[in-house]
Amino acid sequence: MKNKKRLIAVLLVIVMAFTVYGCTLTEGGKDAEKSETMKKIKDSGEIVWGTNAAFPPFEMRSGDDVIGVDAEIAAKIAEKLDVELKVVDMKFDGLINALNSEQIDFIGAGYTIKPDREEQVLFTNTYFEAVQMIIVQKGNEDIKVAADLNGKTIGVQAVTTGDLTAEEYTEDIYRFNNALEASIDLNNGRLDAVIIDNLPAQIIVADNPGLILLEEKAADDEAYALAVRKEAVDLQQLINEVIAELNASGQIAEWVEEYSYKE
C-alpha cells in the first residue's frame, strides 16, 4: 500500500513539472521561435518591402505610389501579418545589401532565383515564369535570331538575368538602372539590341512603334520569387502561404493581365 502511495506521489510530481514546463512554453515559446525579422516586424507594426519600381507590370510608379503585381502581393503579405506595408524604392543592384543590413524585410522586384543569390538570401516559392526576350529597331537586318547578338552592343538593366544573358553574346554591354532607359538608347541608335523579360519587353515595344521583339528568346525560361534574410524561415513560410492562396485563386494571373495594360 505504501509503495502504491509513493508511486502516485511521484507521478503527481512529474505531472506538475510538465504542467509548469508547458505553461512556460505557452507563454514564451511562440516568441522564442520567431526569427529576428519576424520579431522586428511585429514590434514595429510594419513590414518593409524593397523594390526597384521600374519593371512593369510587376512594379512601377503611379505618382507617389508604387503599383504592380509585386505591390499587390506585398500588400497581401502585410495583410496576413496584420501590419502596415512600407515601400522602399531603390536601385536594383542594392537590394540584397539592403535586405541583409535590415533596411528592408523582403525583396519583391521580378526577382529571379540564381545560385549566387541563393548564397545570400532565402527565396520563397516561385509565382511567375518569365522569358528573356530581344528588342531591336524595326527594320534591323543584322539581328534576326539570338545568335546574331554575338559581338553586338547590348543594353540591359544592371545585375538582372538580362545582364547575365548578354554576357553570353558580347562584352559590349551597356548597363542601365532600368530597361526603359535602355530602350531610349536603342531608339536613338546607340544600341543594337536590348535584352529584358518578356512582359516589360512587350510594354516597351507597345509604347515605341520603332521597336520590335524577335520571335526567338534570348535564354531559357526563369522563375520569379520573393527573397528574405536567411534566418527568416518563418517569414518565408508565411509568404509561401500567401503565394499558394493567390495562385490557387488565379489572382496573380489576373494582376499580370491588369497591370500589363494599365495606362
Structure summarized in a few sentences:
The protein has helices at residues 2-33, 36-44, 69-81, 95-100, 115-118, 161-166, 179-187, 198-207, 233-249, 251-260; strands spanning 46-51, 54-55, 59-62, 65-67, 84-89, 106-107, 122-130, 132-137, 154-157, 173-176, 193-197, 211-213, 222-228. The chain has 263 residues and is α/β, with parallel strands linked by helices. A hairpin with a 2-residue loop joins strand 3 (59-62) and strand 4.
* Tally of helical runs: 10
Main sheet: strand order: 5-1-6-13-7
| Average pLDDT metric | 88
Distance between the termini: 87 Å
The main sheet comes to:
5 strands, mixed
Shape: elongated
What oligomerization state is this entry in? single chain
Helix proportion of residues, in percent? Answer: 40-55%
Derived structural class: alpha/beta
The CATH topology of the largest domain: D-Maltodextrin-Binding Protein, domain 2
Number of strands: 13
Fraction of residues in β-strands: 15-25%
Q: Work out the radius of gyration.
A: 25 Å
- CATH classification class of the largest domain: Alpha Beta
The figure for the number of domains is 2
Low-confidence parts, pLDDT < 50 over ≥5 residues? 7-29
Description:
This protein is α/β, with parallel strands linked by helices. It folds into 2 domains: 36-130 and 222-260, Periplasmic binding protein-like II (D-Maltodextrin-Binding Protein, domain 2, 3-Layer(aba) Sandwich), CATH 3.40.190; 132-213, D-Maltodextrin-Binding Protein, domain 2. The chain is 44% helix and 23% strand. Strands 5-1-6-13-7 form a 5-stranded mixed sheet. Helix 3 packs across helix 9. The chain starts with a helix and ends with a helix.
